[in-house]
Records
---
Amino acid sequence: MSLRIYLPGDTTAVALGADEVAAALLEQASKRSLSIELVRNGSRGMFYLEPLLEMEHQGQRIAFGPVSAGDIPGLLDALAGDAAQHALYLGATEDIPWLKGQQRLTFARAGLGDPLSLAHYRSLDGFAGLEKSLQLTPQAIVTEVTESGLRGRGGAAFPAGIKWQTVLDTPASQKFIVCNADEGDSGAFADRLLMEADPYQLIEGMILAGLAVGATRGYIYLRSEYPKALDTLNAAIAIAQEHAYLGDNICGSGKSFHLAVRVGAGAYICGEETALLDSLEGKRGMVRVKPPLPAIEGLFGQPTLVHNVLTLAAATTVLAKGAAFYQDFGVGRSRGTLTLQLAGNIRCGGLVELPYGTSLRQVIEEFGGGSYSGRPIRAIQAGGPLGAYLPHSMWDTPLDYEAFAAMGAMLGHGGMVVFDDTVDMSTQARFAMEFCAVESCGKCTPCRIGSTRGVEVIDRIIARQEPAANRELLLDLCDTLEQGSLCAMGGLTPMPVRSALHHFPEDFG
Amino acid sequence: MTREWGGLSIQQVIAKRVQEYRDVSGGLLPLLHAIQGDIGYIPPASVAAIASGLNLSRAEVHGVISFYHDFRSAPAGRHVLQICRAEACQSMGSRELEAHARNTLGIDYGGTTADGAISLEPVYCLGNCACSPSVRIDDSIHARVDAAALDVLIASLTDAGESK
Ligand SMILES: Cc1cc2nc3c(=O)[nH]c(=O)nc-3n(C[C@H](O)[C@H](O)[C@H](O)COP(=O)(O)O)c2cc1C
Ligand code: SF4
């Protein structure tokens, strides 16, 4: 009997040496005439334990991590004896508290098996949402999504059902589903993890969205910084096509859906949905004036449903399990589960999926385990580069869109970047302005020019030149950016800047 | 990045790619990626051929090439080293890592080492934010890269390292 061993092929696992571990494993196994079956699974999102090696042992999966190539001989020795004595032994994977304490819906399958195995996907409820959708009318699918309370996971948290209904109700000869896989926020990696670990879930979500709104074509707009996700998606699409999940006769239903990946070219603004559409049309990624809404006039002027990776993925759960099941998770108007990504200076970083409503402090303390450096944590930037820097006093707010908005912050895509006490908040504020200057699409003067002015003003504050007057000037600039910008790039750049100034004034002279 | 294009001249490669993408809707970005994948950059002299093939103005094609950070109008070094400049990596010391890279290589962002081995570029997030600082070399991503680890990576990219 051969020993089945799992070792992730995920970007972060490989960046930490998983390929070297795999090579060492195969070499040692052949030296010892040990028969092993190596599965390159996706990651379970416990990045602090990657490379995480798992094996099937007495009917359950046991884990070791983080494993390096040099650990392999000792590990194979330990397996022959008492595995639990090995220094890297973590016990049954499912019982690791970090994982056990989560409530995984969208990421339930992540890391369990070979991401490209259709049989594996199907064995874990894969395509249940699609099969259900094939039995329903388009309106019934849309109603299910509306009633689930599902909101967009890309940052703006707009109710998905309203968009689906609009696209369904807009007649056109060609409609499109566009997946926003631009994931530009620093601290965010949930989209990448999902695409690498469970690509069929995204594909399924897009197909059933197509059935719902009457779209027969879909594009995944993927950022060029994700080469592994690109390979996985392309391979998964080819397999799905071969097995008639994509094409002109989906599962023998006579319905069509065609899907292709398009790669971005290194522009943060192309995550904004209308700039993304321009980019998909082969143009510069310039933000469009709304209205018209993309749901009415989107890609090539046609009705287009644009959603984040996680929104489309969550739709499979909504359809498979029903709106009521999904509604049951969460608080207030934030229904379902939230995917937090613990990043930056954090000891136990990775992906934490929980119902909305938990506090940030609870997540940082229970899952994060303090800073990586061992120094006190000073600030957390929540929701990406346009999000606020939060001091300790704000960590008890429940993780919920409205509660975060009420304190001048945002949850965004759920990336949480932790900084220890060596951070200088004026430098961080300066970076926010600099990033805006680098990534602005250039359409609005405040965003294009004001951001560069912002860098200069902060430089003067840092140099202690008339700090009081320059602080005033900086706040004025923030007002101008907020009021004179067409999109949230310029409109929200003031959020990190103001929060840094307001909560950490001691760093501004 | 290939240096030989199956016996084709640069013009022939471009003509072939233009042919391939001219009827793809919104095909300009995929075309530019394909050309850059083949020859390593978008030769300025090819703008006219691309424009006429896709029925665009030269200004439009040029505008697209210059808008996106990924597209380059001149060849890069044999390897492209990108250092993440975004917040998660900042929190783990990427500013020091950037300075170290510039000093070690003797070039700034956008530059290529004199031996043609390495081009240095900034990148804003590689999606590896739980294990920062991150760098990308060609298509591989490396996690928890400190100055010493970067030195090892750089050494493996120089001629001596490559011939091993
Ligand atoms: C500057 C900027 C960058 C954005 N980047 C992303 C992104 O990387 N991924 C994403 O899904 N949404 C991003 N968005 C939000 C999109 O514009 C849009 O709201 C989203 O794709 C809609 O999908 P959802 O309803 O599923 O959230 C960005 C918005 C702005 C203003
Ligand atoms: S705010 Fe900035 S990024 Fe947004 S449309 Fe205006 S110039 Fe473009």
Note: Residues A 152-156, 158, 180, 182-184, 269, 271-273, 306-308, 311, 487-489 surround flavin mononucleotide (ligand 1) (CB under 6 Å).
---
Amino acid sequence: MFLCVETTRSYSMEKSYMVTDSEGGYRSMESNRRKRKKMESGSQKVKRGGRWRTEAEQQIYSAKLVEAITKVRRSSAPAAAVHRGRAVREAADRVLAAAGKGRTRWSRAIMTSRVGLRLRKRRKVTVTGNNRLRKPAVSKQEPPLKRRVRVLGRLVPGCRKLSFPNLLEEATDYIAALEMQVRAMTALAELLAGTGASSSNLQPPSC
Amino acid sequence: MSSRRSRSRQPGVSRISDDQIADLVSKLQQLIPEIRNRRSDKQVSASKVLQETCNYIRNLHREVDDLSDRLSALLASTDTDSDQAAIIRSLLM
């Protein structure tokens, strides 16, 4: 219930964000952006994507990530390293999307696609634009700028049919979130490597 | 660029102006370290910004994949639960 309310609120904000008539329209977009910042106050900095750069956010993510990954390890232990790595990647993406609190389209897309995967269990589809086989027939005929925008829409999950400003907005947040994900996972890997080496096992460090 | 079709679901959306696009592209430009670190005074074309953005996202994805593999291997080696508790404690401090 609460999540539904959040979604509609952000959706209506997106609506007013997109309306442009003249310079007045541009100004209203700015004021909407300011309004959105006021609503998302608290830990968010002035710069967009700033919420992903706070220390607190990264620590919260790291803790949840550890939880999720240990669950992965305990539940089904697939023998192949590839599958384990993929499971870890999906868990990390899931936790990242959950940290977004459903405010962005990409985070909602990740969260809903995971549920679909579990229910259907068809071929393994990654959320990101790895479906390179689905290239459109015309590749060189459209202007390169449009083509690049399309590629970008494929890379950010759930943003294929988004308009240009919204796509850039999502991409901005997505990039900041990915950077935090990399930072957190790197720190975690170094921590684990250090712990593994200094613990009582005789195993060599796996770096 | 001003003749861009917006395939959004909201009805009655007017055309997106070039100024708006340029503004958004410059905002995106600041995020990409490739562009931010070198030649930040020169104006980079929108096409280049988009290209670098795509490359950057792909790089980040690859990094996350590599880290996932590394983490899964590391987790396989650390078996005890006490390690996990110690990690979480040290993370939250």
Note: The CA atoms of residues 75 and 84 of chain B lie 9 Å apart.
